[in-house]
Amino acid sequence: MENQPYSLFSSFEAEEVTFFADLILPIPVPKLFTYRVPRGMAEGLKIGARVIVPFGKNNGRVYTAIVARLHNTPPSQYQARYISEVLDEYPLTTSYQIELFNWISEYYMCCIGEVMNVALPSGLKISSQSKVQFNPDFDYPELLTDVEAILLAELKKQPALSYDELGRLAGTGSNVPALIKSLVGKKAVIVFEEVREKYVPKMIRKVRLHRNYEEREQLLVLLQRLEKLPKQQEIVMRYLSYIPMQRDPSLNQKGLDKSILNQAEELSQSSLTTLIKNNVFETFEVIQPRFSDNSPATSVEIKLTDAQRKASEQIMTQFESQNIVLLHGITGSGKTEVYINLIQQALESGSQVLYLLPEIALTTQIVVRLQRVFGDKMGIYHSKFSDNERVEVWKGIVSGQYQFVVGVRSAVFLPFDNLGLIIVDEEHETSYKQHDPAPRYHARDVAIMLAHWQQAKVLLGSATPSLETYYQAKQGRYGLVELFQRFGEATLPTIVLVDTKQEKKQKTMKNEFSSTLLQALETNLERKEQSILFQNRRGYSPYMQCEDCDWTAECSNCAVSLTYHQRDAELRCHYCGHKEQVPRVCPICGSTKVRTLGFGTEKLEDQLQIYFPGSRVLRMDMDTTRAKNAYQQIIQEFEGGQVDMLVGTQMITKGLDFDNVSLVGIFDADRLIRFPDFRATERAFQLLTQVSGRAGRRAGRQGKVLIQTNSPQQTILQKVIDNDYKGLYEEEIQERQDFNYPPFSRLIKLTVRHPDRHISHQAAERLAAELTDTLGSTRILGPEEPLVERIRNQFLVDILVKLERDKMNVKAVKAFIQERINDILTDKGLRQVSIVIDVDCL
């Protein structure tokens, strides 16, 4: 299905009718804004195009907006301003996207501008910067101070200067805003907004022979003429070695990267400059795609096993009657090969394909496999890419360069207009849920709606599906295909529970390591096999406490302890980013007995290097993967056998495939299981099963998993050992039904925030009471303080709204909730209160 941009103005005479455009602005206001379309722009303006508009008092700000609707009805409540500029001849946003933006804003109870702000890469949004220029009508130099006179003298030489540039001229300590205000008051300068587009194409400078020398006879004359100038002749000969224009003169027009000649040490750079000056060579610039290093497809043939082929055929059969199919395949069953087979079929039919992954770490490994099959026809989209790189993928989809994109959750906002297939891998992952800022969307659910509008099919894949998804499949709303055989005759690992409580009694524990785990790691090193160690907490230690007075280092902005990071010798808050130096003595009692308690990935890495000197240990968590290519580097080193042990948080549990990993060690399993949340058991099973699945993925060698726990008798751990997902599902779904939790209800969490604890509680109690009066006490839980009651100096209070599925008019209830929230926010006695709405909260 082709989505052609259209213009409302084709059937009207622009000079006879005044047109208006309803625009989406990237601001948190719950409505569209109507602007007048200048007559010169009317004919070419299309829905989905980006425009520049003034906004705010005295048009003080400039925004990039998207045209959502075109009409000839002026707004009734205000005088419409004019659109300043149209940025797109052909829209970069499709009508499907605008429809999706509207749905997200309604469903997730946020503003459409907030959706646009998250959806569009920053590089597609115009930025404005205040500039200052000299006022040519200024005639009173005697009014200027010495500093003002210096600034004005410089402004006379320049077309305009920015605030930062004026600050550097004025010198350290100068109050630049005050200086500019004074100059404006004296009418010596004019302040204006310079508007510029953030996206900057990557340009490369090339050289080519002048057209006069493209013919063979002319080229021979040139070479003869340069015989007396051997350095210049050598440059021409080097150029011809790269560009064989003797065989095909047209190759000359493509030219050669100038850097190739510049970087050749044996060539004279001054001679090259002379050749350019004498019009033998000419220089020119071309736009260089930032993904030009993607290798072409290598015609890799994907050979499916019998089980994979059967699963693929079953999925295609299910798609005939179902729009959504769940592929429930155990870890290591080769779901990726099934995905590739389905992607190939979709692309051959002329459709677009979106492949969603929950983590950037996963894209690093899977992209390499996909590129061997799809080459540079595949786009990659995630937050580690620069703004310019993301814009190029966006434009590549609009131009048709990319028919297939692999990306993380934000990829659902890309401008597809002919989707045939969406794959959501590891669909159970919480990483698909956006928490801050709004919209707090779930990429899996947004993908399903996107597919619905474009009549595409959705494949959800997981070894441990979310209970909600599996329930829909069991009810027949989704198709269900199961793949319970590991690829290449590999077998599931043996899982062993290690009783750390018993080992502590026997004094065989070494810090965080049981004797069983240490022995297994030593054996693995002797066999030259690799190990993965999972601890779902980063940093060195989560607590720093005084042994004498029990003082604990806490964040000044949040109600949490500070985490100790040994490598940087600092205490950090993982909620607001606050940092402190490590105290030498207790700030309360002055004692020197300040110790760290607990452990994180950094401490495990440190201890492993002590217990196994000479071994190669690498850590993968948020602290070690901040750099753009950090994921790729860590995975490449581990995959290449340069690392013996990989320590990490959740990001090492998700779909990574390493042939030589035969041992997985899991720490602190009890904390996962006993977390106070109705999904704790489900998530613990998913996490433990997923990380266990990293072991023994090579045929002929069974992996081993050691789970350290204080309570090995817990039922959930036995289900992990038996890989009993169905048993877990049956128990959990019954409990969910008994207590009316998803999938039998919808949850909306309302979080009231205010710097004053009393006011946040007052507002939350009033809101809960008003909601309870209408919806009833069984549907409203709270208000209550969350586990962390203060974040960034804001006191939090939660209210949970539970709505029975299929029994409530959810749209009407949401409208009612919004009305009650607006009542709170407009109450003068509750100023500065903010209320965060999280629909389908996790």
TrEMBL record:
Q: Which SMART domains match?
A: DEXDc, HELICc
Any one biological process term the GO annotation gives: double-strand break repair
Give the catalytic activity. Answer: Couples ATP hydrolysis with the unwinding of duplex DNA by translocating in the 3'-5' direction; ATP + H2O = ADP + phosphate + H(+)
Q: Does the keyword Hydrolase apply?
A: yes
How cofactor binds (record note)? Binds 2 zinc ions per subunit.
Q: Which residues form the Helicase ATP-binding domain?
A: 316-483
What keywords are assigned to this protein?
Answer: ATP-binding, DNA replication, DNA-binding, Helicase, Hydrolase, Isomerase, Metal-binding, Nucleotide-binding, Primosome, Zinc
Q: Which GO terms describe its molecular function?
A: 3'-5' DNA helicase activity; ATP binding; DNA binding; hydrolase activity; zinc ion binding
Requisite cofactors: Zn(2+)
Query: CDD domains this protein is in?
Result: DEXHc_priA (cd17929), SF2_C_priA (cd18804)
Q: Which residues bind Zn(2+) 1?
A: C546, C549, C586, C589
List the HAMAP family hit by this protein, alphabetically.
Answer: PriA
Quaternary assembly = Component of the replication restart primosome.
**Biological function:** Initiates the restart of stalled replication forks, which reloads the replicative helicase on sites other than the origin of replication. Recognizes and binds to abandoned replication forks and remodels them to uncover a helicase loading site. Promotes assembly of the primosome at these replication forks.
Q: Which PANTHER family match?
A: PRIMOSOMAL PROTEIN N
Which family is annotated? Belongs to the helicase family. PriA subfamily.
The name under which this protein is listed is Replication restart protein PriA
Q: Which organism is it from?
A: Spirosoma terrae
Q: Which gene encodes it?
A: priA
